Amino acid sequence: MVLLDLLVYNAICGLKRTSDISACAFRLGGVMVGHANMGIREVENVKKPFMLPREVHVQVTHSMPPQKIEIFKSMEDWAEENILVLLKPVEKCWQPQDFLPDPASDGFHDQVKELRERAKEIPDDYLVVLVGDMITEEALPTYQTMLNTLDGVRDETGASLTSWAIWTRAWTAEENRHGDLLNKYLYLSGRVDMRQIEKTIQYLIGSGMDPRTENSPYLGFIYTSFQERATFISHGNTARLAKEHGDLKLAQICGLIASDEKRHETAYTKIVEKLFEIDPDGTVMAFADMMRKKVSMPAHLMFDGRDDNLFENFSAVAQRLGVYTAKDYADILEFLVGRWKVDKLTGLSGEGRKAQEYVCGLPPRIRRLEERAQGRAKQGPIIPFSWIHDRQVQL
Ligand SMILES: [Fe+2]
Ligand SMILES: [Fe+2]
After folding, report:
1. Separation of CA 256 and ligand 2 centre (Å)
2. pLDDT (tens digit per residue) in 173-205
3. Where Fe cation 2 is bound, by residue (predicted)?
């Protein structure tokens, strides 16, 4: 955040120290201005037609020592041979149209009718989770921006021919099919409030995200490794549940998306594996740093113009249905520790060893905390979601 914004932000929130910022919640243009500990109040005549994020940490920028940029330059050929090969040629890729009624065919109306018949059986809580997943995919411009904040690997021109830039554009192009397909499916289903969903997408892209990756490709690629696996798991679970609810087409759609996420996970974890080989100390410290800060979800700033806890509420439903849970978070971390053989690293500095110990000990710690929280958990309230015309869903 530039200094001027920071000052304005502080002035609005009445903060004296920048460290208070993460406690501050407010919206401009979203007609709500508030503070975490003073609630939300309506504000009339908001002049600025934009919205600032509800929660932003103090941003550390360019934390990777500049000489380490050379590491990424020297990995160019390696990335071409090992990472770009994980992209699928466009001609071999599925497209959303392959799984949707064809508007140019005579059978279009019947196909839509069939889709809507199947979608009738889908429960509201499942729909909320599917919509939240779709909105997360639809904020793709933010994720491409995030990759292009990373020093040494960003697409400097928009059409750069470095391996890193080629990967980022092609990855984005593959991902773009996910939101498209889910969006069109949900539109045709007739079960959701598309206008509320579209507003949420517009708010979310306008808000961006706060992954705290500090322009460092070490942190950035650890973050994306984690996130691709998280989306692989959640789309896999929505596929399983769609099958249980009798919508085999939807199950196929979610399964296809999950398999893309898996391939992307393979690419990002391979990059980090290589970083562990080249710079074990720097990589293990970045891993520990990312986990200490906690991996925020890409859509954590979502807002529909109404529910100030929309992301938390959506996440609560996803947790209850078992689509994405706190246990998955621990499982992903444990998987990555194993994938990168973090416990077997040798020759680390004192700080590197501390980071190694922290990361390796974290999954069981998260599990213990999670089990205790589960033991205390009461049944959540039933609340309306604007995405499904304010029908009520149990959290
Ligand atoms: Fe995706
Ligand atoms: Fe992905």
Report:
1. 12
2. 999 999 999 999 999 999 999 999 999 999 999
3. 175, 228, 261, 264
